[in-house]
Amino acid sequence: MTTAPVPFELLPNSAAVNDGALSIGGCDVVGLVAEYGSPLFIYDEQHLIDTCAEAVHAFGEGVAYASKAFLCKAMARIAHAAGMHIDVATGGELFVALAADVPADRLVFHGNNKSLKELSMAMDEGVGRIVVDSFDEVDRIEQLVAQGHDVPNILVRVNPGIQAHTHAYLQTGIADSKFGFPLASGIASAAIVRVSESESMNYKGVHAHIGSQVFDVESYRKAIAALTPFLNESAAEEFSIGGGLGVAYLAEESESTISEWAALVLEAARAEGILARISAEPGRSIVARAAVTAYTVGTIKEIPGVRTYLAVDGGMSDNPRPVLYGSGYEAFLPRAVTSPRGLRVRIVGKHCESGDIIVNEAALPLDTIIGDIVCTPVTGAYGHSMGSNYNKVLRPAVVFVKDGVSKLVVERESFEDLVARDIG
Ligand code: LLP
Q1: Of the residues 233, 262, 287, the one at which a domain ends
Q2: Within this chain, do residues 105 and 253 fall inside the same structural domain, yes or no?
């Protein structure tokens, strides 16, 4: 491990240094914590606007933001204003997108187990696309149309049987998966026949998502090659390659840009002779690097001959990715963002779990003390959205920063919130 400062390539686009201290969107990070408390998710709003615009430019009209990565009304509005559609995978995500005044016809409704109630809600609102994932769902849609709902536009989720190189939990395109209709066994063809022949469904095309945090973008070429004959035979008008583009979390990692990924996908589709309009559904690559999480250091416990534990005021409740996937993160002090990081610590949270680790092997400046603000970069995706309030730890606030102005977009949970629905 080197003692080099945190690489700026891992920070939001507007990250800048003033007297050694980090500012994002023109706002001093330590000052933001003084104002809003910690833990705090700090998002560079212009970064979000720019990645959404990049996706629209790269893939064109029809590209959707996968809102599971990070969703609040302010985020939904940014993606919509940039011209993106929005992928919602549950009634809850659908509700939040609608609450942000995103028109229903801009929404793509996903999910491997959509309930009758969720489908009814989506069809009442008139969502743009429903991505069907099972024959049971087809039955439910037919039932709802028979009861008077309008005929919805349908994409069929197909599992191409491609192994994307990523964590096993993040693979979705392999044969043994709960998602989609498998291509290999002929089940996908049967699903397309069923949907296109049904008077209760307007078949539009195919959706395939091969996994998440995929660094090897050649995996997409393989999926496209596997799907082309199928797409053309079924006269698909639309084809979405899903999301999944990997992002760098650590100093030694490097990522492809959304534009590079799109160029590969579009070129592969052209080369294979796909006739359908191509689209995609990025989540992580839109939001991950746009944010940092800021914590306050509470204890520093040195165990001689073993290691030093540095505990912060959050943990697995605001970032469960290390405990779920063994994910690695960098850490740094925003007051000294360009300083060498000679101290080795394990950054842990405040939960009653030994696995409550934020950064397994973190490097921080040698003069790190109690009360310091410590940040982890690249926490904009699957942090806040996968958060919990385990141990009744309060969910953090979210601020957006831009042009020297900070805006609270999600309030910190309060103790009263913890009992708001506890009516016993
Ligand atoms: N479309 C579909 C149908 C998906 O299931 C997903 C992610 C996406 C798009 C967006 O993928 P992205 O571009 O964000 O990779 N919690 C995990 C990631 C789970 C991804 C689930 N589906 C993590 O923290 O790494």
Answers
A1: 287
A2: yes
Per residue in 97-127, is it b (16+ CB within 10 Å) or e — as a string? bbebebebebbbbbbeebeeebbbbbbebeb
How far is residue 54 from each of residues 106, 256, 258, 296, measured CA to CA in Å? 18, 13, 7, 34
Which residues span the domain enclosing 235?
45-287
Mean pLDDT of all residues in 129-136? 98
Please determine, for residue 174, whether its predicted confidence score (pLDDT) is greater than 70. Answer: no
In the chain, % of residues over pLDDT 70 = 98
Q: Which of 129, 212, 249, 376 to mutate to test the pocket of ligand 1 (most atoms within 8 A of CB)?
A: 212
Task: For ligand 1, pick from 59, 67, 68 the residue to mutate: most ligand atoms within 8 Å of CB.
Answer: 68
Q: Is residue 24 domain-shared with residue 50, that is, in the same domain?
A: no
Query: Which atom of ligand 1 is nearest the CA belonging to 212?
Result: 15
**What's the confidence (pLDDT) of residue 169?**
65
Any ligand 1 atom below 6 A from CB of 111: no
Q: Are 387 and 395 in contact (CB under 8 A)?
A: yes
One domain for residues 206 and 83: yes
Regarding the beta carbon of 212 and ligand 1, being less than 6 Å apart is answered yes
Residue with CA closest to ligand 1 atom 9 = 243
Judge whether residue 172 has pLDDT over 70: no
Model confidence at 159: pLDDT above 80: yes
300 and 332 belong to one structural domain: yes
Catalytic annotation, pick one of 27, 72, 352, 375: 352
pLDDT of residue 165: 66
**Assigned domain for 364 exists:** yes
Q: Measured from the CB, is residue 80 less than 6 Å from ligand 1?
A: no
Are 261 and 342 within one domain?
no
Q: Does 256 have pLDDT greater than 70?
A: yes
The answer to pTM > 0.85 is yes
352 is catalytic: yes
Specify the length of the chain in residues: 424
The neighbour count for residue 304, using CB atoms within 10 Å, is 6
For the chain, the domain total comes to 2
pLDDT > 90? residue 166: no
- Quote the CA–CA distance of 157 and 171 in Å, as a whole number: 15
